[in-house]
């Protein structure tokens, strides 16, 4: 019933969900899990680059402390 209420309220509206923000959060979470599980930072970056189809440099920027301020 909650979904039907939401559909009624937003009928005709265009709703946009930013992919980049949710993807960045997912990358950071996976990175933290991999490192805490014992993977080296470079190995975690390499695997995440392959999974998400991004360069290693981009993954490093996303997982850096400054990257979490997005």
Q: How is this fold's topology laid out?
A:
Elements: H1 2-9, H2 19-36, H3 41-52, H4 56-63
Helix pairs in contact: 2-3, 3-4
Order of helices and strands: HHHH
Tell me about the largest β-sheet. none
Instruction: Compute the number of strand runs.
Output: 0
As a percent range, the share of helical residues equals: 55-70%
Rg computed from alpha carbons, rounded to a whole number of angstroms: 17 Å
How much beta, percentage-wise?
under 5%
Could you say which overall geometry the principal axes of the C-alpha atoms support? elongated
Low-confidence stretches: none
What is the average of the pLDDT values?
86
| Distance between the ends | 35 Å
| Secondary-structure-derived class | mainly alpha
Number of helical segments? 4
Explain the overall architecture.
With 70 residues, this protein is mainly α. 66% of the residues lie in helices and 0% in strands. The chain is built from 4 helices and no strands. The protein has helices at residues 2-9, 19-36, 41-52, 56-63. Helix 2 (19-36) packs antiparallel against helix 3 (41-52) and helix 3 crosses helix 4. The protein is elongated. The termini are far apart. The model has no long low-confidence stretch (mean pLDDT 86).
């Amino acid at each position: 019933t909650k979904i039907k209420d939401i559909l009624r309220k937003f009928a005709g509206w265009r709703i946009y969900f930013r992919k980049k923000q949710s993807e960045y959060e997912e990358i950071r979470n996976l990175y933290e899990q991999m490192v805490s599980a014992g993977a080296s930072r470079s190995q975690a970056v390499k695997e995440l680059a392959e999974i998400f189809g991004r360069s290693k440099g981009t993954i490093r920027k996303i997982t850096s402390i400054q990257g979490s301020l997005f």
